[in-house]
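lol forgot to send this yesterday, sorry. struct tokens for the thing we talked abt
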């Protein structure tokens, strides 16, 4: 076992399913820290792929930015769109495996890789998808319970509902300007509500957003796409008009939808 980890740390690389994970700057951590971070990334990618299917890229570069002082395991992270796409993770170098596992950030960023890069006006879809899926992945893998799943989504929706009172532009317009206006709560969680509603509608057909996304990886995933192209592809794969109908309701909406805890608990 010690020899295995020595080889792993020397290569700074993991293989999960068909994906080679290359961890940059892993050697800036202690031996114990390297093992913790490598295990966390390996397990998180496995959990994500169990829900959303195999990631359709042969290599996944991850750029670590270890911090000496941090108030949470992953204070900040982002997707690095390139060839191939990768992730930048700012991490607490002293965090435990348990703390990393319970943090939502890596599940969120990995989810982004399942959709193409959308225009700014469609960021509500990409951020909404990642915000919704981080909770689905954590629930599916037992990191959180069903009750916690409902509570987290409902809390996000409440934050969005509150911010909607002061950020009342059409969602696609606000999405393009969310950083300047600090409107992430409304943009992210209204997008998450879109996918929750899609899941509720698909459920009646014995399907789910996750199963549709699995199909999307195999046939239609591109590097970039328009929001309308993505929506049309998801409708085609689900053999429905669910995504188109919801997109027409959400893209320019200025309110927040009503989704109850009872509905969330049925997901």
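and heres what i got for the seq, position by position
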């Amino acid at each position: 076992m010690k020899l295995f980890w020595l080889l792993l740390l020397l290569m700074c690389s993991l293989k999960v399913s068909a994906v080679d994970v290359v961890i940059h700057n892993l050697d800036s951590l202690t031996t114990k820290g390297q093992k913790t971070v490598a295990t966390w990334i390996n397990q998180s990618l496995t959990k994500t792929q169990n829900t959303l299917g195999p990631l359709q890229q042969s290599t996944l570069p991850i750029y670590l930015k270890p911090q000496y002082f941090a108030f949470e395991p992953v204070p900040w992270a982002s997707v690095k769109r390139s060839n191939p796409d990768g992730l930048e993770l700012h991490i607490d170098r002293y965090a435990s495996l348990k703390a990393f596992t319970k943090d939502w950030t890596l599940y969120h960023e990995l989810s982004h890789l399942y959709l193409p890069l959308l225009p700014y006006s469609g960021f509500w879809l990409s951020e909404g998808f990642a915000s919704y899926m981080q909770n689905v992945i954590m629930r599916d893998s037992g990191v959180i319970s069903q009750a916690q799943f409902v509570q987290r989504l409902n809390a996000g929706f409440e934050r969005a509902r509150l911010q909607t009172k002061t950020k009342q532009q059409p969602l696609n317009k606000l999405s393009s300007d969310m950083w300047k206006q600090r409107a992430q709560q409304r943009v992210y969680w209204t997008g998450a509500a879109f996918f929750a509603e899609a899941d509720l509608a698909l459920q009646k057909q014995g399907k789910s957003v996750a199963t549709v996304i699995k199909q999307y990886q195999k046939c239609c995933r591109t590097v970039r796409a328009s929001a309308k192209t993505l929506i049309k592809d998801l409708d085609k794969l689900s053999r429905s008009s669910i995504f188109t109908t919801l997109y027409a309701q959400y893209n320019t909406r200025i309110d927040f939808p009503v989704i109850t805890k009872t509905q969330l608990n049925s997901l």
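The mean pLDDT is 94. anyway ping me if u want another try
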